[in-house]
Structures are given as C-alpha cells and as structure tokens.
Design goal:
This is CPBP family intramembrane metalloprotease. One of its GO terms (biological process) is CAAX-box protein maturation. Keywords: Hydrolase, Membrane, Metalloprotease, Protease, Transmembrane, Transmembrane helix. Pfam families: Rce1-like. One of its GO terms (molecular function) is endopeptidase activity. By secondary structure, the protein is mainly α. The chain has one domain. Helices cover 66% and strands 0% of the residues. It contains 10 helices and no strands. It is globular and about 60 Å long. The two termini are 20 Å apart.
Length: 292
C-alpha cells in the first residue's frame, strides 16, 4: 500500500512544455471561472444556487486541462488518470467514500468538546437519519461533478508545479486552488446577509482548508493513479463533512468560519500523517503506470 505523497512522471514532458502548460492552464482556469462568476453576479444571480455553480465554474479546471493537454502542449492524456482502475485500487475508492464520515465524526467530537454542539439537544429526525444512511453514497453520486475540479487541479497542475517535491507541490496547489475560490463569498456563495468582513474571513479560511484537502486528495491521486478517488473525496468533503456540520452544528455566522475551522481541525491529523510518511519515503506511486 502506498502511503507516501509521491508525485507522478507524466510522459514526454520537457521543462519548457511544463512551464507553458502551467501558465496556460492557470490563465484558462481562472479567467474561465472568474469572468462567468462576475457576469452571473452582475446579472443578479448568486453562487449559492447549484445550477449557477454548475453553469459557471464547476467544470472550468477540467476544461482548462483538456484544452492545455490537447491543443497547447499536446501532451495528450496518458497520465491524466481517466481510467477507473477499480479492480486494483478499490481500497482507494473505499477510503475516499468513507473517510469523509470519519472526518465528520472527528469534527463533531471537537464541536462537543468546545461546547459548540450538544447532541442531546439535537432533533435526530428523519432528515438527519436519511443523511447518515446516504453519507457513504453521496460522494459516489457527486463524483462526476467534482471531477470538474480534480481533473484540472490535481491530475494536471499538481504534478507539474514543483516536480520531485511532493509536499511542496501539494501545498502550492492547495494555495492556488484556494485563491481560485476567492470571488465566491463576494457573490453569495455562503448565502445572503454577509458583510465585507465575512467575505474576507471566508477568503482567508479557504486557504488552509484547500491546502489540507489537497494533501488528502493528492495522497489518493498518488496512491491510485486515477482521478476518480480524488473526485469522490472532494464530493464527500463538500456534501458530507461541510453539509453534515451545518446540519448538526449549524452555520454560526455568514462567513461560515466555525464550520471551516472545525473542518480544518478534523483534517489536520490525517494531513500530518501523510506529510510524515512522505518525508520518511515510501513505495512508488501508481501514477507512473497510470494509463499504460
């Protein structure tokens, strides 16, 4: 079992090709999302509407990676991780589907210890029970949507930013990914009623959350050589961990700061384990043979 956060070796890549690909990918990913977000906001739409999210930026990173691979660098898709590899990497899929439940449990435990949530006062009605029953399946259903980001940020950008430095390149990818989200709190993504201070806080907190999540996603990518386990985990983070915390704890404040901080705290031990095992070294990853 691969434990280290190793990085891949995409085929036929030169330093010039790598740099050109990074520049074009970032331009397409940012412009292709920020411009539609701005147009949607100017037209009176808010980004808390799932339909608006899907029609604007949800698939922009994937489209940027496709355009870059096919027409700009002409690297092709041999290292893109499109294959499921389910037979050999089923443990990665299982981890991606179940880990969000463990993260949610850890975050709720922390919320109890901090006095933010009292389970005995929570109404465990049919909606709550249905959420708990469906929690393992939610990432599976949502994976095609979150493929839109992971095919860009993780399977394209991550291995190219700082090759040979898996911890550094994962950290850098997380920072860029977090910055990419910065317009969202100004365009109603967190709901109405927030102030400029709330939006600014949300921008800041998006950085550590994105960095931590990219460590988990990058670990799954290095382990599986497929984009699909990362897409599962991303979907679980948004729709199991974040929504679960809102369901149980409640979203205290328009910035969503309490929810984000609980998520960051719950992810931290797993991220620390990944970084430590990476520093200690480990078996080669699956990416070098993915697609062959």
């Amino acid at each position: 079992m691969t434990t280290a956060l190793t990085d891949g070796k995409p085929f036929g890549r030169t330093a010039v090709t790598r740099r050109r690909g990074i520049v074009w990918f970032l331009f397409l990913a940012f412009a292709g999302a920020w411009i539609p977000w701005g147009v949607a906001g100017a037209a009176g739409y808010t980004l808390d509407n799932p339909a608006v999210q899907l029609l604007t930026g949800a698939f922009t990173p994937a489209l940027a990676a496709i355009i870059t691979r096919r027409w700009i660098t002409r690297e092709g898709f041999a290292d893109s991780g499109l294959r499921l590899r389910l037979r050999t990497q089923w443990r990665s899929y299982l981890t991606a589907a179940l880990l969000p439940i463990g993260i949610l449990a850890a975050a709720l435990t922390l919320a109890v210890l901090l006095g933010m949530w009292r389970p005995e006062q929570h109404d465990f009605g049919s909606g709550t029970l249905l959420f708990l029953v469906l929690a393992p399946l939610i990432p599976v259903v949502a994976a095609p949507i979150f493929f839109g980001e992971e095919f860009g940020w993780t399977t394209y950008l991550r291995d190219r930013l700082l090759p040979g430095r898996p911890v550094a390149t994962t950290f850098a990818t997380g920072v860029i990914w977090g910055v990419w989200h910065w317009p969202l709190p100004w365009l109603g993504y967190l709901g109405s009623g927030g102030s400029a201070a709330d939006a600014f806080i949300a921008m800041l907190l998006w950085l550590p959350l994105s960095i931590e999540l990219e460590f988990l996603i990058g670990w799954l990518w290095a382990r599986s050589g497929s984009v699909w386990p990362p897409a599962l985990l991303h979907g679980g983070s948004n729709l199991v961990v974040a929504l679960g915390l809102e369901l149980f704890v409640g979203n205290a404040g328009p910035s969503g700061a309490s929810i984000t901080l609980l998520m960051c705290a719950a992810y931290l031990p797993v991220v620390a384990w990944i970084v430590v095992t990476t520093r200690l070294g480990g078996p080669r990853n699956a990416n070098s043979t993915a697609g062959r």
